[in-house]
Specification:
The chain is mainly α. Helices cover 64% and strands 4% of the residues. It contains 46 helices and six strands.
Length: 927
């Protein structure tokens, strides 16, 4: 049911609920003040959630109120609830940005189009509701949220998490024990519990029947203060029980007693009224026309509702609405299977076969028994329509139901495999595994078995469990044989990705074995994916044949990617592999350029998971350039996206290098322990990245033996992600600890690889390594070369480290004046970046030269939150509020809110002043 405006609250006045009413009041005040608020009310049936929604409606008389009640029979109809909610606002879709409008139109079936991206649908929902709220503050009340179809729930949860300054409030009531898949967990959740004893007794006193005091005490204790139970039991119990003459049931099974009470009320009604109630329970609550057409087919008249209204089952003001959501559930659950099938058959017959084809297919399925290929085909056709709208959860449900009615075992297995694939696309790995298990023995032949293994591997990756994935995909390659070379290559590419992430931890195979297979299987280039394919080949050759064989192929891949239009697949986190290739070639320019392009493509496509991986790569680039604030902005956005997508890999574990460079030791140690806990899941590479971060941290602290231990672990593992980056660190630790063997081994590898890479970073690192290992005055020219070359790329942090080491060397050579020049530049750079341990190390060295280092005062730009910093940066680049909103998946009013705070904090009055006010500190020259 969707309605606008307030509603008179029927029944006894509200008792208690002070905390809930205060929370609702705060939310409404925020909406009136131009802000937003979200509240999720959870609790058992009858606890008062619906009553609180009614209270909110009465308190929001000057707001536009829109209310939606989700219904259980509609949970399989993707985007169905969203369509019902947005229907009053669909005349505004022409105001949406193009991609959002296309996604929403496709999702709701308004126009034909490619499958809608679910996050773009969520953003379109947010924008549409925000536009409406700009004209009149808006309050949305959603009851029985546990019955939302998954697509609608995802869109609403996405929008709710991004409400900020939109004059829009959202209150959702969800029944305990019936999941929303955790989609609302990140919102403000309030658990509604039973009334305290005094308030519960007051509520009982409002009833028309006298209740003995001791019996009232027993009812209150037995019901836990559940308001509906208190009122209904006071009506349902006999006079003898209420007066204390006859005993009460012991214990009081509240839910069962309530359901039994409602069942008795329904059973006492005329048969035609009971049938009409069942139709109401099975039909969408806002489509009374469908219900009455079905009623006509069963020979029921409008007069059939009157006994239900008189019995208090249906609402007196709205005779086709149940008085309480629990009554609807009870009516549907208590009906005999044959009665339910008869009701669904009538509803199917009443549905328009063109306009309501999906609902018709679903009702036909609910009306059918046993194998029925006609119904199965109808459901399969509905699944294709769902897929075309981007309703992948709905597609999976239709396909799973189609399999139930399919007689042919092979066709049934195919439909279950298709259902599993749809579940994976929707992000529900657990449901995908269930569908794969159901397919079971029906999976025959190598092609079907390959599909199954690939999907099981993908489901594992969804759960960030990598250990078994490479072996599963290699098994799929073996089963497929030579039948499909392109599919074989895709499987091997995925296996290599997983094996590189697992590094030394895969089960049942090894990184080298996978890499050898990739090299052997390289096929004729695919024009559309040439750069990506060559990059994967380069990584494979690097592992299987050695650095000299992989480097040239990786260079070809990066050149192709930089020169070409294609960059990556929005459905795959290509940035992870790209980062490995760029870091292995010390090519930060290519990494920055390509990640910027990837991020733009991911944002345009609404590919949030791929974007999140790209943000992590871009953040590391920021760190190497000393842009710690920018890196934190990206990490914060990553965490927001992880919450939206349900990705389990968010949090501080991704900030290892930021913590190390900023000297945040306690946070670093906690994050390192978290990486260790993930080793059993196959995250070997993460362990080495943690060791690399610890190397940086310990060098900043001057603890060289600890740094040597951590850096040596990375050196021995030699992963593409940081195997080369650790070489100058290991040389420094080796020199400081007097371990010449380690120093020479690291320098030898650096001298072999850096010329092959040939980038400023590679050659600067080589010069630095040679300087550290040199004897006598030969070191000076290498230090100078290192500082110069590292200054040719966005590597302000690395250049500052080279200056620090150069200054330390000069001071030891008693050249204090020259040392001050390098150390001062290093100190001021580190201090500006926020690289606390390195700044302190440089400060101490400066003191030894006789110069006092003065710490800079913190600038106002550091008062900006990560989101404010992000908005300010985009505004400084010339983007409009609308363009910023689209990129950040928020509303234009939220962008304006953040910009106003930026102006106040920075003391500026114009967008033109932003660039100068937020300029990121760069390296300090030693000139």
């Amino acid at each position: 049911m969707v309605w606008n405006g307030g509603q008179n609250v029927s029944g006894p006045q509200m008792v208690g609920r002070h905390a809930e009413r205060e929370a609702i009041g705060r939310l409404l005040d925020a909406v009136r003040d131009g802000l937003s608020g979200v509240l999720v009310l959870t609790g058992e049936p009858g606890i008062g959630k619906t009553r609180l929604l009614e209270y909110a409606a009465t308190r929001a008389s000057e707001l536009r109120v829109v209310r939606l009640t989700a219904v259980e029979p509609e949970t399989g109809l993707g985007f169905g609830a969203l369509y019902r909610l947005l229907r009053p606002f669909l005349n505004r879709t022409d105001r949406l940005p193009g991609p959002q409008r296309a996604a929403l139109d496709a999702a709701l079936g308004l126009v034909p189009g490619p499958p809608a991206d679910r996050y773009l649908v969520g953003l379109a929902t947010l924008t549409l509701l925000s536009e409406a709220a700009a004209e009149q503050p808006l309050l949305i009340l959603l009851d029985d949220g546990q019955w939302l179809d998954r697509e609608s729930a995802e869109a609403l949860a996405f929008a709710a998490r991004r409400l900020h300054a939109d004059s829009l409030g959202l209150i959702i009531a969800v029944r305990d024990g019936l999941g929303d898949d955790g989609l609302f967990d990140a919102l403000s959740v309030h658990s509604v519990t039973g009334l305290p004893e005094p308030e519960a007794k007051v509520l009982i006193s409002f009833g028309t029947r006298r209740v003995d005091t001791a019996v009232a005490d027993r009812i209150v204790a037995g019901t836990g203060g559940n308001p509906l139970a208190l009122l209904e039991l006071a009506d349902a119990l006999t006079a003898e029980q209420l007066s204390g003459i006859a005993p009460l049931p012991d214990p009081l099974p509240v839910s069962r007693l309530l359901e039994s009470h409602f069942q008795h009320l329904v059973q006492a009604l005329p048969p035609e009224t009971g049938t009409l109630l069942l139709l109401l329970a099975a039909a969408p609550s806002d489509d009374t026309g469908l219900m009455w057409r079905a009623a006509g087919r069963l020979g029921l008249s409008a007069r059939s509702v009157q006994p239900a209204v008189a019995a208090g089952i249906l609402d007196r003001d709205t005779p086709t609405a149940f008085r309480h959501p629990l009554i609807r559930s009870t009516v549907y659950a208590a009906a005999e299977p044959g009665e339910r099938r008869r009701a669904h058959a009538a509803l199917a017959a009443a549905c328009d076969p063109v306009r309501d084809a999906d609902r018709r297919a679903w009702h036909r399925a609910e009306a059918a028994e046993g194998v029925d290929d006609d119904v199965a085909d109808d459901l399969a056709a509905a699944s294709e329509r769902a897929r075309s709208r981007g309703g992948y959860s709905q597609q999976a449900r239709f396909l799973s139901r189609a399999a139930d009615f399919t007689g042919d075992p092979d066709k049934r297995a195919e439909r279950l495999l298709d259902a599993a694939q749809a579940h994976l696309v929707s992000g529900d790995a657990a449901a995908a595994r269930i569908a794969l298990d159901l397919a079971g023995a029906g999976i025959r032949g190598p092609v079907m078995r390959t599909r199954e293994l690939r999907m099981r591997a993908t489901a594992q990756m969804f759960q960030i469990a990598v250990a078994d994935v490479p072996a599963m995909l290699m098994d799929a390659v073996t089963r497929l044989g030579p039948r499909d070379p392109r599919l074989t290559w895709e499987l091997l590419r995925e296996a290599l990705h997983a094996a590189l992430v697992a590094d030394g931890c895969p089960q049942g195979t090894s990184l080298t074995e996978v890499a050898v297979a990739v090299v052997a299987a390289r096929h004729a280039p695919d024009t559309a994916a040439y750069g990506r394919d060559v990059l994967m080949e380069g990584l494979a050759r690097r592992v299987a044949e050695g650095y000299e064989h992989g480097a040239s192929v990786l260079r070809t891949a990066l050149d192709r990617l930089r020169d070409g239009a294609e960059i990556g697949d929005a459905n795959s986190p290509f940035a992870v592999m790209l980062s490995m290739a760029c870091d292995d070639l010390w090519d930060v320019r290519a990494e920055r350029e390509l990640t910027d392009r990837l991020a733009a493509a991911d944002r345009d496509a609404g590919a949030l998971y791929a974007l999140s991986m790209t943000l992590l790569v871009a953040a590391r680039c920021d760190l190497w350039d000393g842009r710690f604030t920018e890196a934190e902005v990206r990490y914060a956005e990553f965490d927001d996206i992880a919450a939206d997508t349900g990705f389990r890999g968010g949090g501080d574990i991704n900030r290892l290098h930021l913590f190390a460079l900023a000297g945040r030791e306690s946070e670093l140690r906690v994050a390192v322990r978290q990486t260790a806990e993930m080793k059993s899941m196959g995250h070997g590479l993460l362990q080495l990245l943690a060791q690399h971060a610890l190397s940086l941290f310990e060098l900043g602290q001057g603890r060289y033996r600890q740094a040597l231990r951590h850096a040596r672990a990375v050196f021995e593992g030699d992963p593409p992600a940081c195997g080369n980056l650790v070489l100058p660190l290991l040389i420094e630790a080796g020199v400081r600890t007097g371990d010449r063997a380690v120093t020479l081994a690291a320098l030898s590898r650096l001298e072999e690889r850096a010329p092959l890479a040939g980038t400023p970073w590679a050659l600067g690192a080589l010069a630095l390594g040679r300087a550290l290992a040199a004897d006598g005055d030969d070191a000076e020219k290498f230090y100078e070369e290192s500082v110069e070359r590292l200054g040719q790329a966005p590597l302000a942090l690395e250049q500052a480290r080279a200056r620090l080491l150069f200054g330390e060397w000069l001071r030891r050579r008693k050249r204090r004046s020259d040392a001050r020049k390098q150390l001062r530049a290093a100190y001021e750079s580190f201090d500006a970046f926020g690289a606390v341990p390195y700044a302190e190390r440089a400060r101490i060295e400066l003191l030894a030269t006789g110069e006092t280092a003065r710490r800079r005062t913190e600038e106002t730009r550091f008062d900006l939150t990560p989101r404010e910093r992000q908005v300010a940066s985009m505004a400084a680049a010339g983007l409009t509020n609308g363009e910023i909103a689209t990129r950040l998946f928020v509303t234009a009013s939220t962008v304006e809110f953040h910009l106003n705070k930026v102006f106040r904090k920075l003391g500026i009055t114009s967008r033109k002043q932003i660039p100068r006010a937020i300029v990121e500190p760069g390296p300090v020259t030693g000139d």
